[in-house]
Specification:
The chain has 449 residues and is of the alpha/beta class. The chain folds into two domains: 164 residues, Aspartate Aminotransferase, domain 1, CATH 3.90.1150.10; 264 residues, 3-Layer(aba) Sandwich (Aspartate Aminotransferase, domain 2). It is globular and about 60 Å long. The relative contact order is 0.16.
Length: 449
């Protein structure tokens, strides 16, 4: 079966069948929707992809975090099929469908927030979840402004692109919405030299307070929005001591704390959400936005917030045609059931242990491996020209990505300088597949450095 297979490249990439489809893509699809992989998927199972020419790839990207449960899980296929035979869609502004309610109940049970009484709404994408979270915060607080961070990625819609730090994602599409202000994220690998740990935390907290002084007074800030592990920013985790300080600042000033767990959620971190770790430390968010792996590949996202916050939102501000689609809700309920039953959180930690050990050995062996970081199975390897200068090395990463795909491993870059290899492998990867992928990546670094 494909789900148990190992990577195998049978033809030069792209193969003849894939090349024909890629030619059609070039003619029919905007070139601005880029793809660097000479792969046309024919089928996918578990953590494996087979292209139209029979080449088999181990996928360490997983739809950029969509496929924690893997491709084509048979129980999810059956759940969606069963729902499809009843009805595809019921718009919640018109009729109530029970799947939406059941999934909201489940999310209210598993999402860690500061408040124990919660409610959940559904949308279609991560960007929609973030936009709705911001609208909810503004409506509830009556305040106009939002604070985000350097390195942040929140989506490509106009508001989400404004919140996103890297302006390559928003080049030439302004003017942008007002009221979005940016503080410096604690990127510890690139922190100012010579600071102790306590001085470092103080430095980054002062950077946030500077926003209150120079951009928006705290009393005009509705929410602070933060990724527990920055995704496109380079897989940079938010330090717990900084999150605690951030929570205190929000509480002192009546500001809501929004966790963007679009990519970090659903067992990726070794807990269902990184905010579970936050809650254990006494700094849970007020609102949590999730998407990607929530429904195993069907379009769905969620915003979970304190019931009090949702009850303070004016009617008409939230909702939409496809949010909480019946097929997606059926899939999501089964995804969560499988994750809990099969303890994918523990599996995530086991995979992370194997990978981190190997990645750290590369850090010792290769001058170009500057940093290894992450939480659970959301890990990044930052490549530099040398450890002393820490100069970003995007050329090496580009070459490593190309080498890997031509040897049956799909990996992707990240980071402001495109010099980070990200690890987002489906949590259903087998031990032998994981070892095969590690061997390919190690060979790639050795060959390309």
């Amino acid at each position: 079966m494909l789900r148990d297979a190992l990577p195998e490249i049978k033809t030069p990439l792209p193969g003849p069948k894939a090349r024909a489809v890629l030619k059609r893509r070039e003619e029919a699809v905007p070139g601005a929707i880029k793809s660097v992989y000479p792969c046309v998927i024919g089928r996918g199972e578990g953590a494996m992809v087979e292209d139209l020419d029979g080449n088999r790839f181990l996928d360490w990207v997983g739809g950029v975090g969509v496929l924690n449960i893997g491709y084509s899980h048979p129980e999810i296929v059956e759940a969606v099929k069963e729902q499809s035979e009843k009805y595809f869609h019921g718009m919640m502004n018109i009729v109530t469908h029970e799947g939406y309610i059941a999934l909201a109940e489940k999310m209210n049970e598993i999402v860690p927030l500061k408040s124990d009484k919660k409610k959940t709404m559904f949308a279609n994408s991560g960007a929609e979840a973030i936009e709705n979270a911001v609208k909810i915060a503004k409506s509830y607080t009556g305040r106009p402004n939002i604070i985000v961070f350097s390195g942040a990625f929140h989506g490509r819609t106009l508001l989400a692109a404004t919140m996103t730090a890297k302006k390559a994602y928003a080049f030439g599409i302004g003017p942008f919405p007002d009221g979005i202000y940016r503080a410096e994220f604690p990127y510890l690998y690139r922190k100012p030299e010579g600071l102790s740990d306590s001085e470092t935390m103080g430095y980054y907290i002062d950077k946030l307070k500077k926003v209150f002084e120079e951009a928006s007074p705290a009393e005009y800030v509705a929410a602070v929005v933060v990724e527990p592990v920055q995704g496109e920013g380079g897989f940079v985790p938010a330090p717990m001591e900084w999150v605690k300080a951030l929570r205190n600042i929000c509480d002192e000033n009546g500001i809501l704390l929004i966790a963007d767990e679009v990519q970090t959620g659903f067992a990726r971190s070794g807990r269902m959400f990184v905010s579970d770790y936050w809650k254990d430390a006494g700094c849970a968010p007020d609102i949590l936005a999730s998407a990607k792996s929530i429904a195993g590949g069907l379009p769905l996202s969620a915003v979970t917030a304190a019931a009090e916050i949702f009850d303070g939102v004016k009617g008409g501000i939230i909702g939409g045609t496809f949010g909480g689609n019946a097929l997606a809700c059926a899939s999501a309920l089964k995804v969560i059931e499988i994750m809990e039953r099969d303890d994918l959180c523990s599996r995530s930690l086991k995979i992370a242990g194997v990978c981190k050990s190997r990645f750290e050995s590369w850090k010792e062996r290769f001058e170009e491996v500057g940093d290894v970081r992450g939480i659970g199975c959301m890990m990044g390897i930052e490549f530099v020209t040398d450890k002393q200068s820490k100069r970003p090395n995007p050329v090496l990463v580009k070459n490593v990505v190309e080498y890997c795909v031509n040897h049956g491993l799909i990996v992707e870059n990240a980071g402001a300088y495109s010099n980070v290899i990200r690890f987002l492998c489906p949590l259903v990867v087998t031990d032998s597949q994981l070892e095969s992928g590690l061997s390919i990546l190690e060979s790639a670094i050795d060959a390309c450095r």
